[in-house]
Amino acid sequence: MRRRLIVAGAVAVWLAAFPATGSAQLKKITLGAPTMAITEVPFKIARAKGFYREEGLDLDLVLIRGALGVKAIMGGSVDYTTASGSIIAAAIRGIGVKLVLLISSKPAFDLVSDAHIRSVAELRGKTVGISSRGGSVDLLTRLVLERNGLSPDRDVTLIEIGRQEEMIVALKTGRISAALLSPPRNLLLYREKFTKLAYVGDYMPAAPTGGIGLTDEKLRKNRGEVLAFVRGTLKGLKYYRQNRSESVKLIAKELRLDDTSLAAEIFDWHGGQLARNGAADEAWMRAAIDFTKKSIGVKEEIPTRQVFDFSFIEKALR
User: Fold this and answer.
1) What's residue 36's pLDDT?
2) Strands 27-33 vs 178-181: parallel, antiparallel or unpaired
3) Alpha-carbon distance 307 to 318, whole Å?
4) Do 110-202 and 25-106+207-317 have the same topology in CATH?
5) Which SS3 state, helix, strand or coil, does residue 103 take?
6) Counting beta carbons within 10 angstroms of the beta carbon of residue 265, is it exposed (0 to 12), middle (13 to 18) or buried (19 or more)?
7) Alpha-carbon dihedral of residues 18, 22, 24, 28, nearest 10 degrees?
8) Secondary structure class of 274 (helix, strand, coil)
9) Are 124 and 150 in contact (CB under 8 A)?
């Protein structure tokens, strides 16, 4: 008996010297997001359900403003970014980045104004908030203004405000007259009598909101990690679509909503925006590139392979 106790104690000491196999093999990756909005919920579901752990990954989500997401991945301060519009713009400019997965294939934004403004045309002479210069919010805001006969650089003053929470404060205090907002912010403001001036998807359906952007260097050097991240995210997206009640609860928790009916409204609204299997066809990619080219003043032809690489989705689905 004494010998058995000694052996058992020795084994326990040996095991304690090593961390559990699952946690020891997890690779830490960081995903930068412009804001913690509805488009980030599928990533959080994948993390909460252990889908990234199944792929050997430990995901950390951090807040980084739209266009700064590209600088962050280029500088190595984060591994990936959800700033899909900024990734497309950077890739078109020749910066070595790619978009490998989409969350929403349509822009998840409404143009929201204070109650005194009833149309986009009434923004003439007013100040409109954007998150950052060159990001998707900037480009889409300009598009809506132009389609309504306003010059963004002459008829309207565009100022950088930052995150969506800061946009709301600026709207409520009168610092700005309008801004693009995604759920739940837009839906909450409508309950306070703010005005919906436009749904951006009516102007530009081929504009993503959220996704996975990364550098060409990471694509070359860390293909296994990229595939694992894409596969874990696709599991999260599938679970998100198919488990409404649990997804609604997580939306309420992550977006800090006390009203579950609002969370359900957000889920139903978002379902119509999601990209099929995280990818898009050639026509969609071409339209997204052409829109961004026009917005940033690029005229040369840009092949879709310079901006998008959905091959990891194909491999993950197989």
Assistant:
1) 73
2) unpaired
3) 23
4) yes
5) strand
6) middle
7) -160
8) strand
9) yes
Strand order of the β-sheet with 195-199 is 157-160, 127-130, 178-181, 110-113, 195-199
Name the most confidently modeled range: 33-42, 73-82, 100-109, 287-296.
73-82
Note the pTM of the prediction, 2 decimals: 0.77
**Which CATH class name applies to 25-106+207-317?**
alpha beta
Amino acid at 207: A
94 by Cβ neighbours in 10 Å (0-12 / 13-18 / 19+) ranks as: exposed
CATH topology of domain 110-202: D-Maltodextrin-Binding Protein; domain 2 (3.40.190)
Characterize the bridge pairing of strands 209-215 and 110-113. Answer: unpaired
**Structure letter (DSSP) for residue 308:** B
Mean pLDDT of 147-176: 94
Contacts 24+ apart (CB under 8 A), 146-153: 147/203, 148/119, 148/120, 148/121, 148/198, 149/121, 150/120, 150/121, 150/123, 150/124
Residue type, 100: V
* Residues in contact with 261: Cβ distance below 8 Å, sequence separation at least 6, in sequence order: none
Residue 283 Cα distances to 287, 288, 298, angstroms: 6, 9, 19
Tell which residue, 182, 191, 93, 110, has the closest CA to residue 144: 110
Q: Where are the domains of the chain?
A: 25-106+207-317, 110-202
As given in the structure block, the two tokens for residue 80 are 């990936």
pLDDT one-digit tens code per residue, 90-109 = 999 999 999 999 999 888 88
Contact 102, 272 (CB under 8 A): no
